[in-house]
Amino acid sequence: MQKSLLRVPFTGKFPEPLIVPRSANSLTGATAALTHFLTARPLPSIRHGSSPSEQTVLLTGAGISVASGLADYRGTNGTYTLNKTYRPIYYNEFISIHEARKRYWARSFLGWTNLHRSHPNAAHYAVKELGSLGRVSSVITQNVDSFHNTAHPELHTLELHGYLRSLVCLTCRNEYPREEFQKQLAALNPAWAGLLKEALESGVFDTEDPEERRSKGLRTNPDGDVDLPDAPYSTFRYPACPTCLKNPPVLPDGSKGRIEVDSDGAWTESSNAGILKPAVIMFGESIATSVKQDTERAVDNAGRILVLGSSLATYSAWRVVKRAKDHGMPIGILNLGGSRGEESFFEHMPSDNDGRYGVRCCESLEEVLPRVVEKIRRG
Which of 93, 143, 144, 370 is the least buried, fewest Cβ under 10 Å from its Cβ? Predict the structure, then answer.
């Protein structure tokens, strides 16, 4: 397979996280500081051309879903921490290399079951309650697991990097449910379906401990990816877009698209259209302009921003917080490890800061957020 020249950003270790205010160095102290942050009146110094809002916009990352049994990237047991050789597929590889797509879909086929049967955890439902209490205006998430939509459908969520629940055709742009696609993959790949069945029966996905999963021969990565060392990925097959197959589209150059399948219905390399891709933003792929604009509006309509479970290693996430800083908005970060550029977000904090002007703490999300909800309720 052709090796990409692009590199995954910030795979190294960040500096130790700050603690702001100093009293936020325990579960009790962090709860108090976050409560002050979320209930403080808007600062008159906010500069985004409208009346300051009392509500907070949330930016969430992989860390909020770890308690649901999903892997993160840069935590203690994160993929980049435990597997130094791991690299995700890049957009240019996926759209142009048939063998790369085989490898991607084989690994996704193995990992989908674990993702599909996982559920939102206490942190997601605490976000729901913060919305109900009027403290949170919207959620911007880097995650593709759809847990926010499941936990709080009434609280607006912007999925910055897309979602795994659907696929999108690269030609006609129609979307299809991932659950049905999984059934098609199983039918096209009976040997792989048998392998997955054996893995499920062995209980390899029953543990959330990545080391235990590795001892059973699997490496689980973020976004529903499972690495099975020495697996025959080149044997894997995947279906074509059903819409393009039925009605071949006209391509941008004016020619008619060609979608050819084998006797079982699998997409073949002689095709030039009808490729299905997960509805996520892959590394090297641009985020849609409409999503960027919606994200900017969500920040502009809030009075402060709170980051939950993100190292801000990707530029698309970091720029969201940078926009809030440029507006003079208070910034909060709740993440177990360090976050990109966090020292610049907490410069010149007032000496009487109890969390109102900014908070940085390092506690478990599923422990501290429900406590914050209860403290706010009690007034």
Answer: 370
pLDDT digits (tens, 9 = 90+) for 99-143: 999 999 999 999 898 888 899 999 999 999 999 999 999 999 999
Q: What is the pLDDT of residue 3?
A: 43
- What is the Cα–Cα distance from 310 to 59, expressed in whole angstroms? 8
Taken as a whole, the chain contains a residue count of 379
For residue 20, the 8-state DSSP code is B
**Token pair 């069945």 in the structure block, residue:** 197
Q: Which tens digits make up the pLDDT trace of 87-104?
A: 788 999 999 999 999 999
Alpha helices per DSSP H over 189-340: 190-202, 210-215, 242-246, 289-300, 315-326
How far, CA to CA in Å, does 300 sit from each of 58, 137, 158, 334? 12, 11, 14, 21
Torsion of CA 279, 281, 284, 289, to 10 degrees: 110
Element (H, E) at 61: none
Q: pTM for the whole thing? A: 0.90
Residues forming beta bridges with residue 169, ordered by sequence position: 276
d(CA 111, CA 227) in angstroms, rounded, equals: 9
Residues of the chain with pLDDT under 50: 1-7, 78-82
Collapse the DSSP code of 220 into the 3-class scheme (helix H, G, I; strand E, B; otherwise coil) and give the result.
Answer: strand
Beta bridge partners of 219: 227
CA dist 80 and 77 (Å) reads 8
| Residues 262-269: contacts with CB under 8 Å, at least 24 apart | 262/237, 264/187, 264/188, 264/237, 265/184, 265/188, 265/239, 265/240, 266/188, 266/237, 266/238, 266/239, 266/240, 267/237, 267/238, 267/239, 267/240, 269/98
CA 301 – CA 57 distance, rounded (Å): 8
For residue 321, the number of C-alpha atoms closer than 13 Å in the C-beta half-sphere is 29
Helices (H), ranges, 40-90: 79-82
Active centre residues (catalytic): 161
